[in-house]
Amino acid sequence: MKAQRIALALLLAASTAAAYAGPCADEIAQTMARINAKLEAVARTVPPASAAQGPQAGMHRQPTPRSVADAEIELGGLSEAVKAGMAAIDRAREADLAGDRSACEQALAEAHRVIGD
User: Fold this and answer.
1) Residue 56 within any structural domain of the chain
2) How many CB atoms within 10 Å of residue 108?
3) Domain of 72, in residue numbers
């Protein structure tokens, strides 16, 4: 169940980011698919953990993909490589929005390197 929520949240984030097609939008989507596969693999190996709910849990706000991933990392459910890969994807998206293909490709290369692709 937890793995499904993580995968769904990350797929949603990837799909909303694809709404703008910059110079390397396709490559970003492909890299996100690889990261999602890594997240799903890690999530399947982690036993369900229980954590205390934060004060905002009852405020009827949906968690963002990043907050779900951060919570999983805090609980030991995701590797630091995936966290670094997501940071590289963020840099790639920023470069893509700016139309900077070179910086985008460099960030994607970093994402592939840290997730072991």
Assistant:
1) no
2) 23
3) 2-45+62-115
